[in-house]
Each structure stands twice: as structure tokens, then as C-alpha cells.
Design goal:
This protein has 17 helices and 26 strands. It is an alpha/beta fold and 514 residues long. β9, α9 and β10 form a beta-alpha-beta unit. The protein is globular, with a radius of gyration of 24 Å.
Length: 514
């Protein structure tokens, strides 16, 4: 007789992680979710609870978030994603793992955490009733329906895709449907959810925090207090105002198995005796002994196509973008396929609120990294690839602005009367880079030096140290510390061949001109 399978025990955690785990488990148990016994009870009305898990880069916040997600799912808590939400029973407990940006959510998904963006939870898709039955069947909450005009083999393809990838829109696309076939629109969420885990919470502004508190009775924030605070919040982050018992701090730094020189540099910034000159000596020493840190005397233009140079000053950003476009021979009146863009917001009047929700739900939120694929079928439209989005390919009415040095007004090569606004993305400010990570990151050190000379302080820390910390921790594998205002010639042309799409692209004309 085979022995009964043993239930997985608590994760192997460091002492400070274990202490945070116990505190979070206590909060969840009070809310009706017992992680130890893997038992859940129906949610009870009452006062909501907010907790925050804080720590610098490498302290194990993401590991704790991932293990907490695993334990909640093992206890029977259902994950709510951003693409479809089936009707649930009153006694069902739910979990949403959220991030402020597409890229931050994508990084979590690559680590096995079923994350989506805050926008995709605040705004839910409205499905055509007929295809809602199909979505319920795919999600396991309904019986196999009969859909007029859909063959059995198409439904089988949809089921196979969903079982492999867990994406309702991707499964329906695999069956030959377009987004406009089954999604009628998007609406602001009316009904509350249950448990929310929020990554990169240092990026939250007060309005987003209030929206999340309205939706989630139990809200757990994961954030780095050494990041830059949202613009307009006087250096404060939303978790700064929480009471001491609501904040759990991870102090220990969990290095990679072979150590991480990038994390070493990031944490060296916490030493009050390290000034800018001393820090650059540390960078040079790290570069001499480890290829993951590069002391670079010029910007690599090839990397800029997918990983922007991180700068402090807008003037630096504009000069680098101009140099990048000139190096690739980009014309002044058009974009080349493969040029990077950054979404700068949605420019729509209030009467087009539904169209705004549609664009934001597809990933075109402010700060989203986008690659230009070419002109759309309609005047003013652009075909785009949204980095990190669940279904990255779309066509949208676009207002693309190309800034040039010493010119106040940007040049606009493509402009619909209204739609999604974009800036060039070959270089971005460090503020806008928060929440994103790239394998290779170039930091423009002369800008960090300028911040050091300015002697500015933010929330008790020298601004240059906050800027350097955020910029350095955007690098996953390699950090290039660029010391001079020079640009290397590109070794390859711009293109889009590297933009793989795991799901079938949804051919969605996301905005109309009427």
C-alpha cells in the first residue's frame, strides 16, 4: 500500500522572513484563511486590514510573496486574474496578485506568480453572454456549451491552450476569435474582492491606494523604502503612514548563490561614509573582477532599442534619444519598426471614458514600454507591441511625440485627434523606470554626479543615492555604468523579430476616430 502523500510544510525561510510569515499568517487566519491547516471559512464583514512587508533589494520580498501565494492557493483560495472572472459562490475566497506596471507583473509571472496589473483589476472585461459560457467552461466552472459557428476542433484548441497557459483571451484567440468578438467593453469594478498582494508598492500614489482599500478587505503591500516616492507626494510612500505593528521589515540580504556584485553596489549606498567619488571607485573595482558590472565610457546604442538608458535629467534623455535615432538613420518625420516608445497617458475627453478603460486594460497605462511595429490600417493608428502585457499586440489611435534638444514643442510624426500618447523610449528617467527590470541596464553616471553636486536630500537621504539605488536595482544580469556622453555605433539595425508572442495576437482596433 502506497503511503499517503505528505502535505508540503511551511517554506524554508530566514528568521526575519519567518517572523513576517507568522505575522501575515495571523492576519489571514483572523480573516478566515488558515495557512497551517489549509482550511478556509467564508469572509465575514468587518474592518479591513492593511499590512506592509518592507525591505531593500535582495531581502527576499519576492520570495515571501511567491510562497504566500503558493500557500493561499494550497488552502483553496482562488486566484482572480485580469482577463476573466467567473461567477463565484459566496463562500469562495479569492486572491489577486497585483503590480503597478505591465513589466513588474511580467517579472512576477516569469517567476511563477500569477500576477496582473492594478488597472486590470480595477477595470473588468464585459464578455458577450454566449462567450461567457465558453469562458466558464474553460475555467472549470461550467459545462461545455454549444456555440453557433464554432466547430468542436476550435473549442478543443481553446481548451488545450487554456490548460497549458491559463489565459482565457489567449484560448479564445487560439480558437480563431478576435478580442472584439467576445469582449464588449470594460467597466469599473463594482463588487469587492478579498485578499490583495501588491508588489512594488513604493510606486503607489494615494488615489491608487484608496482604490485598492475599497476593493480588498485584506491588503498586503510589498515595497522597498529606498526607492523613489511617486512624484507629488513629498518623498512619502503610502506605507510610510501605516502604524508600526502594520509594517514588517526584512533586514537580511539574500544573495544569489554566486553572490551579486550589483546588489553589493546597491547596498553600499546605505553607508553614510560613501560619497559619489567613493561609490564610483566601488563600481570600477567591481567591474575589474566581475563581468556583470561594466565600467563603460560610451552608451551602447544596440541595447537602447529594448532597454532604455536611465537618466536623471530630461535634457539628457532628449539628447540621448536624438543621438540614438540619428545613429539608426531614423527619418525626422516617421518612426522605424522596432523603435521603442513609452506610453505617456491617454488623451481622451470624459465622454470617451469607455475607450480609455479599453486602452488601459490592454496594457496602455502611463509608463508602459511599447515597441512600434508600423502604421495601422486607419490614419493616425499605430500597430504596437506592449512589453509585458498578456496580449501584447494591438492597434491604437496614437499621438507620438518626438522631442529634440533646444526645441520647446515636440515633433509629432503620427497624430490621431485623440488616443494614446507616446514619448520615445530609448532613454527614460529613473523615476519612470521604477517597477521595471531589464537583463542589461545602462545608467548614465554624469547625471548621478550632477545630482550629487546639487546636494539635494529626499526623505532624509541624498537624492543621488536614491537615484543610483533605483537605477542599479533595475538590472537583472548586467549593469553598465556609463561615464561619458558618447554613443557607440549600432552593430545591428532596428527590427521586430525578437518580439515573440506566446499567445495568438488579438487584432484589436482599440480606438476609433468617431
Amino acid at each position: 500500500m502506497q503511503p499517503a502523500p505528505t502535505r508540503p510544510g511551511p517554506p524554508a525561510l530566514s528568521p526575519d522572513q519567518a517572523e513576517a510569515w507568522d505575522a501575515l499568517a495571523e492576519v489571514l487566519a483572523a480573516a478566515g484563511v488558515d495557512l497551517l491547516s489549509e482550511e478556509i471559512a467564508p469572509a465575514q464583514p468587518g474592518k479591513g486590514r492593511v499590512m506592509a512587508v518592507l525591505g531593500k533589494a535582495g531581502s527576499g520580498k519576492t520570495l515571501l510573496l511567491a510562497e504566500l501565494t503558493r500557500a493561499l492557493r494550497a488552502a483553496g483560495v482562488q486566484v482572480v486574474g485580469g482577463d476573466y472572472e467567473s461567477r463565484r459562490r459566496k463562500d469562495t475566497r479569492t486572491l489577486a496578485v497585483l503590480a503597478p506596471t505591465n513589466k513588474a507583473a511580467f517579472v512576477l509571472r516569469m517567476r511563477g506568480v500569477p500576477a496582473t496589473t492594478i488597472h486590470r483589476i480595477l477595470y473588468t472585461p464585459v464578455y458577450d453572454p454566449e462567450y461567457e459560457k465558453l469562458a466558464d467552461w474553460l475555467a472549470g466552472t461550467g459545462t461545455r456549451p454549444v456555440i453557433e459557428g464554432m466547430a468542436d476542433d476550435a473549442m478543443d484548441r481553446a481548451k488545450l491552450f487554456y490548460d497549458q497557459h491559463g489565459s482565457i483571451p489567449g484560448a479564445l484567440a487560439a480558437a480563431g476569435l478576435r478580442g472584439s468578438d467576445f469582449i464588449q467593453g470594460w467597466k469599473r469594478r463594482d463588487d469587492p474582492l478579498d485578499i490583495g498582494l501588491i508588489d512594488e508598492s513604493s510606486m503607489l500614489d494615494e488615489r491608487q491606494f484608496d482604490d485598492l482599500r475599497e476593493i480588498f478587505p485584506v491588503l498586503i503591500l510589498f515595497g522597498d523604502p529606498a526607492q523613489l516616492a511617486p512624484v507629488g507626494q513629498s518623498g512619502e510612500m503610502v506605507f510610510d503612514r501605516l502604524a508600526a505593528p502594520q509594517k514588517l521589515t526584512l533586514h537580511r540580504v539574500h544573495r544569489q548563490a554566486d553572490d551579486s556584485p550589483i546588489l553589493d553596489l546597491a547596498h553600499a549606498l546605505g553607508d553614510p561614509d560613501v560619497d559619489f567619488a567613493a561609490f564610483e571607485r566601488l563600481v570600477r573595482d567591481a567591474a575589474a573582477r566581475d563581468p556583470r558590472v561594466v565600467w563603460a565610457e560610451r552608451v551602447e546604442s544596440d541595447l537602447m532599442a529594448r532597454s532604455p538608458v536611465l537618466v536623471w535629467r530630461n535634457a539628457t534623455r532628449v539628447r540621448l534619444i536624438t543621438a540614438f535615432r540619428a545613429a539608426h538613420g531614423a527619418p525626422g518625420d516617421a518612426l522605424l519598426p522596432g523603435e521603442p516608445l513609452i506610453c505617456d497617458g491617454i488623451e481622451l475627453p470624459l465622454k470617451h471614458r469607455k475607450k480609455r478603460i479599453d486602452l488601459e486594460a490592454r496594457g496602455l497605462i502611463k509608463g508602459a514600454q511599447v515597441i512600434y511595429l508600423g502604421p495601422g490600417k486607419k490614419p493616425g493608428f499605430s500597430r504596437l507591441h506592449v512589453i509585458g502585457a498578456d496580449e501584447p499586440r494591438l492597434s491604437a489611435a496614437s499621438i507620438i511625440k518626438i522631442e529634440t534638444p533646444e526645441v520647446d514643442e515636440p515633433f509629432i510624426p503620427y497624430a490621431a485627434r485623440m488616443g494614446a500618447a507616446f514619448l520615445h523610449g530609448a532613454a527614460v528617467t529613473i523615476h519612470k523606470a521604477q517597477g521595471s527590470q531589464w537583463p542589461d541596464v545602462q545608467v548614465f553616471a554624469p547625471d548621478i554626479s550632477a545630482a550629487a553636486w546639487a546636494n539635494r536630500v529626499e526623505a532624509g537621504l541624498p537624492l543621488w543615492k536614491r537615484l543610483a539605488y533605483v537605477a542599479i536595482t533595475r538590472a537583472q544580469d548586467r549593469l553598465l555604468w556609463v561615464t561619458r556622453a558618447r554613443l557607440a555605433r549600432p552593430q545591428r539595425g532596428l527590427g521586430t523579430e525578437d518580439l515573440t508572442v506566446e499567445t495568438a495576437p488579438l487584432a484589436l482596433e482599440a480606438m476609433t476616430e468617431d
